[in-house]
Amino acid sequence: MTFNDDSKLSGGKVQRRGRTAAIGGGTVGIGAIVVFLIAQFTGVDLSGFVDDGTTQVQDQGQTVQPAEECRTGRDANQRVECRMEGAAESLDDYWTDESRQLGISYETPGFVLFHGSTGTGCGQASAATGPFYCPPDRSIFLDTAFYDDLQSQYGSSGGPLAQMYVVAHEWGHHVQQLQGTFADTDRSGTGASSGSVRVELQADCYAGAWVGSAATTEDADGRTFFEPISRSQIADALSAASAVGDDSIQERATGRVDPDSFTHGSSEQRQAWFTRGYERGATACDTFSVPGSSL
User: Fold this and answer.
1) CB 156 within 8 Å of CB 59
2) What is the mean pLDDT of residues 37-59?
3) Is the N or C terminus of the chain more exposed, i.e. has fewer CB atoms within 10 Å?
4) Contacts of 255 (CB under 8 A, 6+ apart)
């Protein structure tokens, strides 16, 4: 998607961190790191594998600051950090209204861009971790270097909407946290119709719902954030959804596909649920009442 050059970014939705951080003044066990690496990226809830969220992040001298130089849509079109700020402001505008349709009380998630590594309530994260939502922190964490990997290693077109799809998916996990979906869903199993896959596909659907309405979201002065979305831009987002399908990842890594080990859904499923949200909105994203054969 292309931002309207004259749209206004208020700033403050995105925070940036330096290269070093620690949890609780100590170290994070190897188990947390392994969980991060196995998860690959996107839509990871790690609360069942690490601490209960009582651990506090200590920044140990790192700089934590908003992306203050991102002021206009023109900035968002030119710089990835500003694009993240613009996406966050549009997502926040969308979910402030749409949450009422889902019957939830909405609050804005934290959104942290980091470089190298950082500490979170879900464990220590590095660039290899990929983007994720951490429920104890109610925050999204992302190293923008991941977008290079999305294009070079995972085969996505890697354009602006592919990048923002990733953010919108993680934002969808925040909405699920507010809905109680994480608490109510057994995500310990795997497989093409498992609870973990249903959670991920719903987040894809929520991402699509935002894209479907993104061109109507407005800045503080009532200007729309985006120009109308083109078919090629939708194809850009679908390429990202396909690239992070379990079957695509498995085939690239091992040359074989094992549906019984799926945790996020196949490329076809992820594209289908994104499209469903795009065409029908967030209220059409109930992946939990759908038979496994229809996922």
Assistant:
1) no
2) 38
3) C
4) none
